[in-house]
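## tool: complex_structure
## caller: assistant
## args:
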Amino acid sequence: MDKNINTPKPSSFEVVKENSNYLRGTIEESLKDPLTGAIRADDQLLIKFHGTYQQQDRDVDDERRHQKLEPLYSFLIRVRVPGGVATPQQWLALDGLSEKYADHTLKLTTRQAFQFHGVLKRHLKTTMKGINKSLLDTIAACGDVNRNVMCSANPFESLVHAEVAEDAKRISAHLTPQTNAYHEIWLDGKLIEGGEKDEEPLYGKHYLPRKFKIAIAIPPRNDTDVLSNDLGFIAIVDNEKLTGYNLSVGGGMAFTFGNNATYPRVADVVGYLPKEKIVEVAEAVLIFQRDNGNRFERKNARLKYTIDRLGLDFFRSEIERLSGFKLQPIKSYKFETLGDKYGWSQGEDGFYHYGVFVEGGKLADRNGYLAKTALREIAHIHQGTFILTGNQNVIIAQVAEKQKPLVEALLKKYKLIDADTLSSLRQNSIACAALPLCGLAFAEAERYLPSLIDKIDNILEANGLSKTPISIRMTGCPNGCGRPFLSEIGLVGKAPGKYNLYLGASFTGDRLNKLYKEMLSEQDILSALTPVLVDFAQHKQEEEHFGDFVIRKDYVKATTAGLNFHS
Amino acid sequence: MSISISGILSPEQTESFSKFTESLNRDQLLWASGYLAGLLGQQTNQPVPEIEELVPAVDAQPGLTILYGSRTGNGEALAKKAQEIGTSQGFKVTLKSMNGYKTKELLTEKNLIVIVSTHGEGEPPFQAKALHEYIFGKRATKLEGVKYAVLGLGDSTYFQFCKTGKDFNEQLEQLGATRQVPFIACDIDFEDQAEQWLNDTIQTFASENVVSSTKATRQFRMDLPKQGEKKENVIPYSKKNPFMASVLEKVSLHGKGSTRQTLHLELSTEDAKELTYEPGDAAGIIPLNSVELVNEVLRVTGLSGDDVIEIKEIKSTLFEVLHSDFELSKITVDVVGRYLVFSPNEQLQQLVDNTDAFKEYLKSGDIVDLFQDYPSKLTAQDLIQLLRPLQARFYSISSSPKAYPGELHLTVGLVEFEDNGRHKRGTCSTYLSEIDMENGNVKLFIESNPGFRLPENEQTPIIMVGAGTGIAPYRAFVQHREQGENPGKSWLFFGNRNFETEFLYQTEWHDFLKTGALTNMDVAFSRDGEKKIYVQDRLLEKASEVFQWLEDGAHFYICGDMKSMARQVQDTLVSIVESQGGLSKENAQEYVGRLQTENKLQMDVY
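## result:
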């Protein structure tokens, strides 16, 4: 390391990684400490690489302090599901674990992962073991590594879905950290496959400067929000055959309030590669970011900043050098929507698929609505797969014709919501988990958005807009798990009950929105939206989307690049 | 030359003194007289006793032994009272605790007053166990020549009221000792009754001794200390004269989701300068019955709360006295007995005759049950005569006066249960949980607990084992040691049901561990795993370390429920000593017994 005292110091997280002995730290000791439900501070950073976050129930922080009890600590566990495809057996295994060790809910994330919330420290190991037993895992589901690789969940639209999903799995496997720490800590040292040596040929002991996200989209559906990822692949299909992918780089959502050197960014589409090259190119981009990313300031460490700092030309030449492959010209493609398809549809393969609407991605049995039980019962009889979508929904996929009535009967029995009865706004909604468990949240999201949509729905209905697709996304903070900056109506929590309102993103995920008004209460949000929506109802052009309309009518300026998001 | 020295020196002294002086010449005698005068001069700060007073002191002052055994400070306090009375009556009084009393000494006692409490289901308190076993054992010797009287302390809400006292009373007679006065069984409200009995009893002993020692007669002062006079100075606040403490803080210690509740109360004792306590002491709280319970009693008795009744010439409404003066949430043998007199009832008589069923009924039955299950019509005045006075409830104090001067903290488990088709609540815990933070005052007094004390040397390691609210005195202990100069090691074993919601004072223990006021802590939460884990299991896991601490002189404390915990912890302690010390079971028991007699094993169990 450079001894020059003028060199800025690497961020403290870099030191923790270096001293962690390939992500071991003192996690074992932390887990064994019976006097606290928390783990040590450094270990809290390290366990993210293992797919779990320490959280605390902020709803009860204050009362517990008075009760002389430590905060109610628990853990979020994120289960990696490359491409979002899970078997019924895996569904049942995870459902069972969520009932036994988590808060009886399953969160379907915006990155096609399952999330458990509220797992107590003493149940962490058992839960991890259970997940691994189902042949899914949590390693690298969080942390400064490549995260769950996403893939469009549209088996009904493309014969190539299976092939693309397979590519997602290959990338995922290739970029998975190799440390044995995960097995030692969570699986009592028992390796699933033969023993590997402890080194990280790809990552090295500092891993990446920051998280790294990969998604694949199969046009015309951009349900994975491919351009919000560090690295994206847009499938190019010719004659019903997958030929290759357009490469997109430098997407990302997060920024920090008050820090304009941080900003969300839509990825640049930089070239085309034949399908055989996908793993090599993915590795080259990851290595580029490993070696060039900012390790001194975590807030500016994502690939989007590296590219804006070093320039796309340098990036391209480095990728071509590292992969030994010259990118080809971009092939044409067209996205039509970010949203999901709900209800029954028959795929090109003859199987039936049913898109289930899961509000906020939260699967639970609540207030007499037994959605979680319904899907469990379906998993018991289902012979196909479940596909999680990037919009926090799930598709009951590959239902054979003779199985269809059985699934249908269960959907009826549990009165699962028919998404057709919902406003298009609700169909196109996303909310992150936020309060009470997420430590980053400034305001509610998942618990609050449904009731806010009720109120906006009234405005839409009064103006005949109920069936006009408009996307709405709410997050508790600007880190952007719910990708609010790619939403036509973006609401980002700034303080309890107060949100910033962003407008003007495209409906297909290729243009960011812009701040319209700040620090709005619910009443302020409704007052701000009403005239714009009334105007939209009266003056929208044929096929014009809300996000495009607000720019045409100059409610906000178009954001043409991440660097002008704040201006 | 000869001098008359009889009456001052003993015959042997007279003999050797005469021999010595007869051998001296005049010069030698002069020198000796000067020398003796010099010796006398060196002792001038010690008063030279008058010859007359020396007479009874040397060979005529009768001895009186007060032998006490009780878990709380009550026995000791009464014994001290007896000592005071005995001394004023001219006895040479020896105060002895049964704990550590050599059983053979019994033989040599002349006048013996036994004060002993009864614990749980008729058992002796552990301080009295060895002696109790001895007098009933084969090795017990005849005690002819021993004159005795026994005072039993107990709580008549228990079935075997004052059983240990009765045991001593009967067995001492069996062994040939002579009972001077009839046995007395004192209930919770013992002070007046006990003092009267002590006065009478010691008088009786005195008159017996007068017959054999006429010389001493004039030494006996007959004027007794005026009641309350001196006591007021020693123990300023008592049950009869409680301190009204205001409430500083009231917190529920259990987190959301727990099905039970424990209350943390911080009371101000700032205005009670004389109210002093030590870690380990308990506070007596005088509660009020809940309005709901009073109304239920009025409903089942068909009486009106406005009925005016008269007690000791003071008129009050029935509601008032039921609210603040009488026990409603418990029924006892005596209450049922009186009820039967007022209103003979064949079924109730049958229940009383069936001991087991009756015991079961008394466990959770209250006044409402009695009237509901065995209805009768009583007047308000009859009802009042039936009831027993409202008792104080005792809680281990959970604060150290050193750490919180002017405050007294309590840790109170809320008692709530379903029984006989009704939701029942503990009187005092309900009272404390509902007390008004702004204007509420709690009537309290200190109950000394000399059997549960920190080691005198703060360097002595301590091991504290407690479950549930049994953690209370340890909070006081650790707070106290933290205030010390250089406290020794300390180790806390705590058990409850659930880690997240019932880890009492969790953040405080974290802080104590950080500052080093607490060295080690182990916890057992019984409902958190597939298998139930208790404090004794944790002790066993740490057996070798625990034994090492004991070998290093650690004091070992047990606080909590007798049935569910204390016994198992004691058994575990024996097996730890057995396995780690390589001892036989008997020797291990002896080792633990020795810890107990040396006051290194102390228990506060209920």
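## assistant note: Confidence is low (pLDDT under 50) at residues 1-5, 192-196 of chain A. Residues 522-539 of chain A form the longest helix (18 residues). Handing back to user.
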